[in-house]
Specification:
Two copies of one chain form a homodimer.
Chain A lengths: L12 H12 L9 H8 L3 H13 L3 E4 L3 E4 L1 H25 L6 H8 L5 H10 L25 E2 L8 E7 L4 H9 L7 E6 L7 E5 L2 E5 L1 H4 L2 E3 L1
Antiparallel strand pairs in A: 1-2, 3-8, 4-5, 4-8, 5-6, 6-7
Helix pairs in contact in A: 1-4, 2-3, 4-5, 4-6
Chain A binds a DNA duplex through helix 3.
Chain lengths: 224, 224
DNA sequence: TAGCTAGCTTAGGCGTGCCTAAGACTTGGA
DNA sequence: TCCAAGTCTTAGGCACGCCTAAGCTAGCTA
């Protein structure tokens, strides 16, 4: 990964969004089809073609029609920087400023593009060097390494499994509020009592209480 | 002033910069010539003409050739919101994250455009409702009122004056570092021993020490 | 193998925010 | 009074990031 930060490299917000999305779609390991990226970013396929061409010129992605787009090592570096900014900001907003886990995503999405390396570092230090954000996602190190995740989706659990909530998707605030309302926070221990049948809810035992978890919530929850 | 926040009103970063600059140049009280604004923002006069036309359509400025540009009440509201964001961010960075007073300006200039009202409020609360930023500039209230400033420029002081540093311009980090190196911080008390003669330095007595203050530093310092 | 369809790219266009170059208006001095 | 200088606007253009519409390609199915 390049030593230059995204700020010094003057990548635009939009470019950073594309790189971050590519990273999230696994463009480090395998090529990502443009259509997938278009859906993710809610832009037209034509826009994706344009932007991928620009990013290719900048040496941030490789791109051929047969396979799709992949991040170069430099592109991965920029993407990881954005992911680090995003997750660190989420952690900071929750721990230092009293945000709830359902309030931080949009704020972090805006701020991640304009914080300096200095601010990043100060927040990191203020939090004592956190490893995870408020949704259980790992915060990449400055060198770009990520702890391997061993969790599995709540949907994949079998009746009788005793697990803890380890991670949730940060995308949908409403679902996050619903999970919290059911008593599910990061680290909450519970037992899976009933698996989902015919797309019905899962049933959990949590603090002696039986709790029904709709499919849509179970899908964004991960446990170990 | 409109109740809508700049975010909800979707003013662009650039528009907000123009409004803030106009506010700083006194476009509430008197019309500001476009050339002055162009110099301030380091853009061409033609760009200013363009942008003022857009802002006029949005009802944020009035603009006639004879006089120049003035902020409407709504425009003043947006400008003050940016000023509030900027100064609050500066205060937060210094007090909560250990920045020095010469490090905060650029960071705040970027962040002021993308923080939510929620974040603004959380920072305000975390600081206990501060009235001034680290350079002694007053932080406007949400309703847009500003405490009146009674300070005067250090340059205007006479020999024998006993005063305290109350405010400095936040624009030039190097000068801020130089002031600090001379022992001058907000609230520092000193006596003016010698006024500037033939554009030479002022002389101050500060903690029994005699200190020479170059004209360029005295110009950005204010006292009361 | 031929044709259809899904997916990608090209072409052309739009709004924003900037630019330079050239014209118009004002204002003060000769 | 009239010219010169400074100021402001107009005209035309560029990069960015997006769009729609139309064309191309490739792979699957009949």
């Amino acid at each position: 990964m390049s030593k230059l930060t995204a700020l010094a490299r003057h990548t635009s917000s939009a470019q950073e969004d594309y790189l971050k999305a590519l990273y999230g779609l696994g463009a480090v390991e395998a090529a990502v089809p443009p259509s997938r990226l278009a859906r993710e970013l809610d832009v037209s396929p034509a826009s994706v073609t344009d932007m991928l061409a620009k990013l290719a010129v900048l040496g941030l992605v490789t791109h051929d029609r047969a396979h799709g787009a992949r991040l170069t090592p430099t592109g991965r570096g920029v993407a990881l920087e954005m992911v680090r900014h995003h997750r660190l900001l989420e952690a900071y907003l929750v721990q230092a400023l009293g945000y709830r886990w359902d309030e931080v995503h949009d704020e972090a999405d805006r701020l991640e593009h304009c914080i300096s390396e200095v601010l990043e570092q100060r927040m990191f230090q203020a939090l004592g060097g956190p490893s995870f954000d408020p949704h259980g996602d790992p915060i990449p190190s400055t060198r770009g390494s990520l702890p391997r995740e061993h969790d599995r989706c709540l949907l994949a659990c079998k009746a009788g499994d005793r697990v803890r909530l380890s991670r949730v998707s940060d995308r949908e605030p409403e679902k996050l509020r619903a999970l919290r309302a059911l008593g599910l926070e990061l680290g909450t221990a519970f037992e899976v009592v009933g698996e989902s049948r015919w797309e019905g809810p899962l049933e959990l035992r949590l603090n002696q209480r039986l709790v029904q978890v709709p499919l849509g919530l179970a899908r964004i929850a991960f446990v170990h």
